[in-house]
Specification:
single chain, alpha/beta, eight-stranded mixed β-sheet, six-stranded parallel β-sheet, 14 helices, 39% helix
Length: 386
């Protein structure tokens, strides 16, 4: 099968969405499908065309930028390439999603959407306009598409877009891939971080406003009062994050005041993530709005034996509720977050499940099987991701 995947950002850009698509594309290619990713040339130094893990990546030059988004003629390129493929896998949100879906229909090809999240850009008139335009384009895409993939039934029922198209939605677990932590490397990381007895509180995300990092910062003094050796290790982009410069500046004084209790370690290679998760006592997902729909890092941490404290957002709460590996707290509540972190650390054994039990809920083969069925016009078997 010839699959054209269309999305705004792809590797080397790092986000939950790009990781999801990279895993899906690579697995499809490994199964013998001809996979092309059509995306933006968000960095001018990136090649216009290259092959990564058996996937052909074609990048469209960016004409202009609006906040975190880019303007580019990707719909035109999708229209030209659609007839060379059997199906278009379109990943939303994106400014051009509606036009790309129309291009698929005009070429008489299947259009399968994956809806990763609602878009909620930071405050500002331009961002509000960008939100509205993107929502409209996503609505067009959903109206035109044959099928829509959602991460969970929980998120689909609460999403301002997805709840309008219930008959088109198939719930498919996200592709989760993570290795097994190496005990020696885990010990080395904890020593490097200055963690004696711990606990080490982890975060794995971009430093972006929707991630609610300010609530983790605000919770830490209370955590330290009860767990004097506690510290946070933050893995992910934290400098020059597109559209988040002001957010970083607003947080910096409070982070600086924590001294060595807060450590940024930057973007880690995927091969290093298992050891990172394994070195944590607890992972925190403090997201505050529907830009976060699940949080792949939660499942990755759980597979490495690390429990999670997550906010009670639709979709985001599901990994904890499904596995029992952690606890869910109210959104934007630093006091509740602090109490939950302390509770999970102090009763950690009661929050840990065997790896095989978690892995059974998020099987990569099941995910790719579901996409293959949708690509040929068949609904996948029912799944238990609520």
């Amino acid at each position: 099968m010839r699959v054209l995947i269309v999305l705004t950002y792809y590797r080397p850009h790092v986000s939950g969405l790009t990781i999801y698509v990279e895993r899906l594309a690579s697995e499809l290619a490994a199964r013998g499908h001809e996979v092309t990713v059509l995306t933006s040339q968000h960095d001018r130094d990136l090649p216009r065309r290259e092959v990564i893990n058996g996937v052909t990546v074609e990048r469209v030059p960016v004409l202009a930028r609006i906040s975190k988004g880019v303007l580019m003629p990707i719909a035109w390129h999708a229209m030209r390439r659609a007839r060379d493929h059997d199906v278009l896998s379109i990943h939303l949100p994106q400014f051009d999603g509606g036009l790309v879906a129309i291009a698929a229909r005009l070429a008489r090809r299947r259009a399968v959407l994956t809806y990763h999240c609602d878009l909620r850009l930071p405050r500002g008139l331009i961002n509000r306009v960008a939100d509205a335009v993107t929502f409209a384009m996503n609505w067009v895409a959903a109206s035109v598409a044959h099928d829509i993939v959602a991460y969970t039934d929980d998120y689909a029922k609460h999403s301002s877009l997805l709840r309008r198209f219930p008959r088109k939605i198939s719930v498919v677990p996200p592709p989760v891939v993570v290795g097994t932590p190496d005990p020696d490397r885990v010990d080395e990381l904890r020593r490097t971080w200055g963690a004696k007895e711990g606990p080490v509180i982890g975060s794995a995300a971009r430093l972006a406003s929707e991630k609610g990092v300010e609530y983790l910062v605000a919770a830490l003094p209370e955590v330290i009062e009860q767990l004097p050796e506690a510290r946070v290790v933050f893995a992910g982009a934290f400098e020059n994050v597109v559209g988040e410069q002001h957010y970083r500046q607003s947080l910096q004084p409070d982070i600086d005041s924590l001294g060595d209790r807060w450590r940024f370690v930057g973007v880690l290679q995927q091969s290093a993530m298992a050891d990172f998760f394994g070195a944590l006592d607890v992972l925190v997902v403090s997201s505050i709005n529907s830009t976060e729909s699940f949080g792949l890092v939660q499942v990755e941490a759980m597979l490495c034996g690390t429990p999670v404290v997550a906010t009670a957002l639709p979709g985001v709460r599901q990994p904890v509720l499904m596995t029992g590996m952690g606890t869910v707290v109210p959104v934007a509540d630093a006091a509740a977050l602090a109490a939950a972190i302390v509770d999970v650390v102090q009763h950690r054994d009661s929050y840990v499940s065997p790896r095989h039990q978690v892995a059974a809920m998020f099987d990569l083969d099941d995910t790719v099987d579901a996409y293959e069925r949708l690509f040929v016009g068949k609904r996948p078997a029912a799944v238990a991701v609520r």
